[in-house]
Amino acid sequence: MTSAITSPFDIGESVSLAFDDQRRLRIMVPRELLPVAAWLYTDAQPNIAVLDRLGATLQRCRSEERTLVGNGCQVDFVNNIVVLESRYGRWPRKIVPQSVFWPVLNGLRSFLVAAAADPALARPADYPLAVPRIFEERPDGGQKPYFVDYTYFPPEWSGEEVRAAGNGAWQSPTAVRDLETGVWSGMWRGLELAGYFDPATGEVLTFFPVIAP
Length: 213
Hints:
- It contains four helices and 13 strands.
- With 213 residues, it is of the alpha+beta class.
- The strands form three sheets. The chain has a six-stranded mixed sheet. Strands 10-11-12-13 form a four-stranded antiparallel sheet. Strands 1-3-2 form a three-stranded mixed sheet, with helices on one face.
């Protein structure tokens, strides 16, 4: 495990994954793949079971030409490419060959499988149980249905508790923020929150729970 510094991302010549001391992903990618790193961090959870459900949904989106709307990004498959769009305007539309996209996603799964036995990744006894949910949305007006993949705070939490978690994570000493993609992460009572912010203003745009290993 590596120590967290100021950003969840590092720039390198290839894709590399690690966990920091807070059980959060650190992702190294070539600079041109930073939007992919952002998508991995906020929309693909570092949990094998949740990731497998995402993978199955993505395969269905590809075969049925559906859109997948996630916590922070929108994914579309067009011929042999993947189109990644930030739902919060954090980067221009990114075109990624499927020959790059799938190996990166499968690499995350392989990393999680290899790290699964690490006792440092064990959840604390009082770990808040966030809820992942994938569902189909059927818009009015004859538009094509699409899939939604969100993570939700524990259902017993009140709105005030959710706001307190967001503020606490954003202001926590372990918070990390990436100025290029707007991705941020912080810890609140053992639960990682991730989201997007506007680097120009410092405004938090959104936050949501991360499903731990």
